[in-house]
Structure prediction request, 195 residues.
Amino acid sequence: MSNSDLALSVMLGVALAAASGFRVFLPMLVVSVASHSGSLPLGEGFAWLATPAAMLMLGVAALLEVGAYFVPGIDNLLDVIAAPVAVIAGVIVSAATMTDLPPMIKWTAAIVAGGGAAGIVHGLTAAVRAKSTVLTGGFGNSAVAVTELGGALFVSLLALAAPVAAFAIVVLMLWLAFRFVRHLRGRAGRTEPAK
Prediction:
């Protein structure tokens, strides 16, 4: 495998991992369907993702997850529960799609880049939902849920079609998240009462 193919598989893995930060099961379902159809090769040890049983279970889980995020109160609870699960899903999808890498490099990249991207995206979406809950009493959370669902689907499908473009979008999202957090910290520092 050439260096450019290796770079593409890493970009694909990180982009799919970031999509797992929006929705845990939807990117895994996309990977399962794509690998079952033969359009996405999986790394050694991940053939189970391409099985009909995995597609069925991931499909049911994705439907339940998507539906639950439209229920006020449950959505905020899911954000707490899904935080570690999103990171694990990010590690799995990135490791599964990073083919032909030495195991040490694959797992380091999957844990650091894949899990990190999923965790950051999930943290940002949870913060947006919490802000929406406070500002709208939970009535605006459906719009947040639709945006997250669209983000998960868009990034997952784009990663399969154009990994470089999907990776660039993920990098842009992470940069914007970093700026957003810096902005919030700056505002919090300016609004603290003098002691």
About this structure: Residues 131 and 138 are 9 Å apart (CA to CA).
